[in-house]
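Final report, closing paragraph on structural work. Over the funding period we assembled a curated collection of sequence-structure pairs, and we close with a single example.
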Amino acid sequence: MNSTLEMSTLRRTKRRVFNILEGDVTEPASRFCEIFIAVLVVLNVLAIILESVPEIHDAWGSYFHVFDLFSVGVFSIEYVLRVWSYSEKYTEPGDSAWKGRKEYIFSFYGLVDFVSTVPFYLQLLMPGTDLRVLRMFRLLRIFKLSRYNSAMDDMFEAIKAEKDSFSSALFLLFISCLLFSSLIYIIEGHDQPEVFPSIPAAIHWFLLTIISGWGNVDPVTFPGVVLVVITQILAIALAAILTGVVSTAYTTQVARREALYEMEIREVLADGVVTEEEAIKLKNMQAKYGMSDEQVEAIAAQVRAEKDLPD
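Its predicted structure, as stored:
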């Protein structure tokens, strides 16, 4: 009897930990947990940036070390609790406890959480590790913030939805790269053999020109000048195409998200009664989609007006 009671208490505790870490609106501690981790991440990034300044590091190095110890402790506990509690994600009969755990461990956020603590332990195991490399890994902690904001997820979904458009733009870039690199090699290669000794070197010039607007090389022939101008115009055109594709896809993704929420509200209001469970579900959807109270109220008011329901 006692063992059954202990298992029941352990299961409830695990479920509550899962809800808190996943931002369930029914858990008062969930919001505090989100804010605490987000603030800690921001302070970590600021500390890493300031620590790279030699004067500040010499004066405050010990404090930075103590703060990093505290942060690693918090992030390690968070990671362990997430792995432990994610067995509660799938609770249907026949589901393994490790189904949810494996999904988290190998997910984007799981890998970010893991990498957030690895530099510290690597430094303990390998004291001679380059601090600049470890600092780069520590900077990846900034991605932990994306868990509490849907902007990055929306961006990835938008890119996925417009993958055909992106593929076309990248194909144009690839063709342009081969064509213009070959042309600049043929035109400028004889006059500047130290700059354009081969087509791969010309490809390096093309990529620099596309990315920065200037390939660190001034052409010495008139055809070369014309080619550089055309390449810079092409860079602007490709940037405009990709920007247009992303902005359109992102807008579509936001509209799709609002449409999904509106469908859920219509389903909830179909019988004219909103139960406590349905209200919690709507609140969780609002948090997941990052929608403001004004957006939610506008959608709900529209649905009520169509159904002639009271507020």
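The CA atoms of residues 57 and 247 lie 41 Å apart. The domain at 163-307 is CATH 1.10.287.70 (Helix Hairpins). We thank the funder for supporting this effort.
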